[in-house]
Amino acid sequence: MKTIRASIIGFGAVGRGVAQVLLDKNDYLQSIGIDMRIVAIADSKTALVDHQGVDLESALSRKKETGTVGSEIMSGTEIIRTLDHELVIETTPTDIDTGGVGLINMMAAFERCMDVVTSNKGPLALKYGEVIAAAKKSGSHCRFEATVGGAMPVINLACDVLAGNRMISMEGIFNGTCNYILSRMMEEQAPYEQMLAEAQELGIAEKDPTYDVEGIDTASKLVIVANSIFGMNASYRDVTVTGITRITPEALSLANADGFAIKLIGEVNDSRINVAPKLVPLSHPLAVGGTLNVFSVQTDLAGPITITGKGAGSIETASAILSDIINIYKN
Description:
Elements: E1 2-9, H1 13-24, H2 26-31, E2 34-42, E3 47-49, H3 56-66, H4 76-82, E4 87-90, H5 100-111, E5 115-118, H6 121-138, E6 142-143, H7 155-161, E7 167-173, H8 176-188, H9 192-201, H10 210-213, H11 216-230, E8 240-241, H12 249-257, E9 260-268, E10 273-281, E11 292-299, E12 304-310, H13 314-329
Parallel strand pairs: 1-2, 1-4, 4-5, 5-6, 8-10
Antiparallel strand pairs: 2-3, 7-9, 7-11, 9-10, 11-12
Helix pairs in contact: 1-13, 4-5, 5-6, 6-11, 8-9
């Protein structure tokens, strides 16, 4: 049995999802020889520390009831720099402008030769090369499946399952909010503003939806794909981005009459990274509806491979984090 001491830095929806998944899958982890002990949890205001392992059920209950996870005033970065443990589960919010506290946390972990599993796109979209170089220098693992497709395996599919294949090109839908809005605009023949309001009411879109509807979220994910799968040295600023805010019901209806859907498509090939609304044949694997995401890669040996799944959700994203943890420690 291998005991892994870990911290969860960021206890929003994804961090709480990780805690719940670790509770639900504890018996499975034990069966494959992994004894996971969360020794610290930090949210934006407080921290909970227990060197023997925190009670995850109590932590989740306290967060729900009080809005804070603990009583200690200690930042996530302080936990990483001062507390002995092997793994940092970094689930703080994405900051695409600077990399935010997530970048600070990841670099602090590598300075102490700690492994990192993250759902935070910002550090990798802005400074992928620096992050990976720091991890390699320290001999640390850095895994980030949850940054791209949520529950949909993108990085692991291309780099592990399809190992040995050369990736020729990739395209896909990586934002469930945009896909939901476009699907509903077509179904209801309703304007963008009305379907955005519906998505916000259902909790599918944020109060400020700019990050999603302007294509910024998709662009961030594409940079991670371009660097990790295609070996590029790109940053968010290298992506050509067009969002969905100018699409009209009339355009969707005309496309549908000709056998097409309009989808926000992200594309990567050897020299180009692009995000824009595109016509997709209704019979094409990319023509998925609702909040679904889809990833299609063209390979030299296996040909085209396409997968569809949920690209967001706390438990779904936590499933990708769990997969990364298992991949690091199972062997």
